[in-house]
Amino acid sequence: MEVMCIDIGKGTQDIIYLDIERDNIENAIKMILPSPTRIVGDKILKMERDIEIDGKIMGGGPVSRAILQHIERGYKVVMTRRCARTVRDDLEEVARRGIILRDRVDNPDVVLGDLDFEMFRSIFRDVGVDFKPDVVAVACQDHGFVKGQSDRITRFNYFRELLRRSSNPLEYIVVKEEGIFSRFRSILETLRENNYRGFVMDSKIASICGILDYAMEEGVEEFIGLDIGNGHTLGVSIKEG
Which Pfam families match (predicted)? Predict the structure, then answer.
């Protein structure tokens, strides 16, 4: 079984691709590429004209700043409503920032999305490897959206609910396009549209799974684990793990 794992962060996307029945982890294909939000954001910063944007909700940060800077430079930015939530989940707030919202854009200058399978296929083709993952596992951050509530509060309420249901983070994968997490939903839609089986998980939860796996291998039952990213840090205290 060939598995592709992608951790989509603020600065980079970290990828490992392996046949779990044949390869050991040392010989797996590994790549560190600029994050999708940086790739698309840099593209927008180089444009010197009015632009129209379509696609799906993706991680914000650099791409959101690039869009707003484009407006500050005096250019018009048109976005479809389905991708405009990349900037803010509240579309009224998006419109207040000067972005023109449309139901449809026929010939977009920019297409948003966290997963660029055409890019992956091209990279693999250039190195003579067939790109045919049986499963695609994606980790990213989605704060969720509840109108009138802080994104951070929404996310930690989600963590609290997960812990009530189970103390095993391996059960915290998301496989259905539902709930308050629009970015997770967009990733699952992209997987389905490309005919790939897979799931998405909060990147901090995914890091805890990795820490626990190492601790189990080493026989460590009580520890503090830290995941230190470019934008966020998460700590966990594990006892009898």
Answer: DUF1786 (PF08735)
3-state secondary structure 32-53: EEECHHHHHHHHHHCCCCCEEE
The reply to whether 37-112 shares the fold of 2-33+116-203 is: no
Has domain 37-112 been given CATH number 3.40.50?
Answer: yes
Q: Decide: 81 and 91 in contact? Cβ < 8 Å.
A: yes
- The pLDDT value given to residue 241: 56
Whether 146 contacts 154, CB under 8 Å: yes
d(CA 155, CA 144): 6
* Residue spans per domain, the chain: 2-33+116-203, 37-112
91-116 pLDDT per residue, tens: 999 999 999 999 999 999 999 999 99
| Closest by Cα among 12, 17, 16, 24 to 2 | 17
Distance CA 126, CA 118 (A): 12
Average pLDDT over residues 217-222: 89
> In the structure, what pLDDT confidence band is assigned to residue 155 with cuts at 50, 70 and 90?
confident
CATH of domain 2-33+116-203: 3.30.420
- Residues 78/71, Cβ–Cβ less than 8 Å: no
Distances (CA, A) of 119 to 19, 112, 125: 20, 14, 10
Closest CA to 239 of 225, 228, 226, 218: 225
CA distances from 59 to 54, 94, 155, 201 (A): 14, 15, 15, 14
